[in-house]
Structure formats: structure tokens, C-alpha cells
Amino acid sequence: MASVNLQEQHWTRLFGNVTTEPIPHYGSWTVFSLENTILRNFQGLRILQANEDLTILTHTNKFPQNDGTFQEKSWEIKKETCNLADGLLHPADPTKRSFSILEYGATSWFPQKLIPGIQFSVEFFLKYDPSNDSIGGIYGDNGVLDRIIMIREQLGDFPCEPLTPLTNISGSWQGEKLTMMPDLRILEPEIIPKLILDPSEGQNQTFFLPDQVVLTIPKMVKLGEAFQMFAGRLVTANRYQRLSVMYNELGNFVSLSNETFQC
């Protein structure tokens, strides 16, 4: 019964604010090289729409074309088959799960397991009304980091020019950390005494991206070595949010965390 309640609560956190009217999030999609140069930039819309009793969600991605048409892809997310005890299964990739720690919407979309010979990617969602930054690294089938993808989204219209990258942070910061386990349990909050932009202590590669987003991820992922990935954003002058995922040496997903720092 507890597991069922956790699943129900999780579904509500994911989709409780989705309406029967299709509401598009206008996005600027950018692909970065490992040298932080822009390889590609294009626009897209992500749209979620619910049925009357919030048991079926339609997720649509639309990409404007030069001839005025749209390239479009849609998925149907059914509560009965997709709302699982280990997270949300999105039909786009059944090997991944979506977790939501805070209301509303996904916090991260990640593989349940690192599998040698298969591409690996984790997507983080850093939200601060009315904007949403989606960030992730793409690893090749050899486990080596290949590129970075960032999606800057907002309601109403496509985003304007982003804020300049954040390369350092000053002041006295204290944070609170919430951690979500593979069975959807959220642990008691943990106090973080100070903010360190690179919590991997140099083990990961750090990317300072637009909108004052900091992505800290391994250059390579492989079985036999545990690893963590971090994505943070300075959302206001005195608030910094960071998400992280942890995998163990067997390549299994261990936990997802959300840290909120105040200065």
C-alpha cells in the first residue's frame, strides 16, 4: 500500500498542474562541444496535454521548419502502464525513468543502469518560474562524453538572449538537500553547510553554460567506477539550485538529489 501511495504522489508531482488545454513551452535547443563552443542551435516546442481525469498525458515535440511547417513527434503516457514503482516510464525510452522531487514536473530523466556499448545520457530540469533549463551530457557507446545539450524554455514565446555564464560565486551560502531513492522514497532533508560549484573536487569536467548554469559531469563513464553528475543554476542573486544523480560501481542508479542554497 505504501508503494502505491508513493506512486500516486509521484504521478501528482509530475503532472498535477497539466491541463486539458495544450500549453506549449517555447525552447531554444543548443548543442555544445566539449570546448563549450556552439555546434548547433534551433528552436522547438514541448507540449503536455492531459485527459479529463489526468490518467493519460500526451507529450508532443514540435520543431519549426524553414518552409513554415513543423516536424512533430508525440508520445502517449498512460498512468496504468507508465506510472511504475521505480519511476515514470516515458515511451520515448523504456530503459529510462523520470523522477520528480518537487512539484511540479520532472526533476530528471535518467537511465536505470549504465550498459556497456550503449549510449548514455542524463537530463536535468532546473526550474524557476517562468523559465526551465534542461541540461545533459551525451556519452557515446564507448562511454566517452561526446557533447552537451541545453534547452532553455519559457511560456508564451521563445527565450531572449541568455544571462552570461557563472564562473564563480561569493558570499556565505547554506543549503538543504532532498534525496530521492530508486523506490520513490524521499529522505529527510539534510543541511549543506556551504556551496561549492564543483562538488566533484576536480574529478568531473565542469561546463559554465548560459543562464548561469553549471554542469559538472564525468569525462567518461564505465562499470567498476561509481560516479556522480551535477547541474546547478543561480536562479536569483541569493538562491542557487543544484540537482545530482549518483550511480554505483555496478552502473546502477542509486539516488537523485535536489539542493537549494540561500545566501
Radius of gyration: 18 Å
Oligomer: single chain
Number of helices in the DSSP assignment: 2
> How does the helix and strand content classify structurally?
mainly beta
Q: Give the CA-based shape.
A: globular
The total of beta strands comes to 18
**Strand percent estimate:** over 45%
Please write the CATH class name: Mainly Beta
Main sheet: strand order: 4-3-2-1-11-10-9-8-7
Order of helices and strands: HEEEEHEEEEEEEEEEEEEE
Proportion of helical residues: under 10%
Briefly note the CATH topology name: Lipocalin
Structure, explained:
- Residues 7-157 form the DUF3598 domain.
- Residues 196-257 form the Biogenesis factor required for ATP synthase 1-like C-terminal domain.
- It holds the Pfam family BFA1_C.
- By secondary structure, the chain is mainly beta.
- It has a single domain (2-262), classed as Lipocalin (Beta Barrel).
- Helix content is 7%, strand content 50%.
- It has helices spanning 2-15, 79-82; strands at residues 23-32, 38-50, 56-64, 70-78, 83-84, 87-88, 96-99, 108-111, 120-128, 131-139, 145-155, 174-180, 190-192, 205-209, 213-217, 227-236, 239-247, 253-262.
- It has a nine-stranded antiparallel β-sheet. It has a seven-stranded antiparallel β-sheet with strand order 13-12-18-17-16-15-14, with no helix packed on it. It has a two-stranded antiparallel ribbon with strand order 5-6.
- Strand 7 and strand 8 (108-111) form a beta hairpin.
- The longest helix has 14 residues, at 2-15.
- The mean pLDDT is 92.
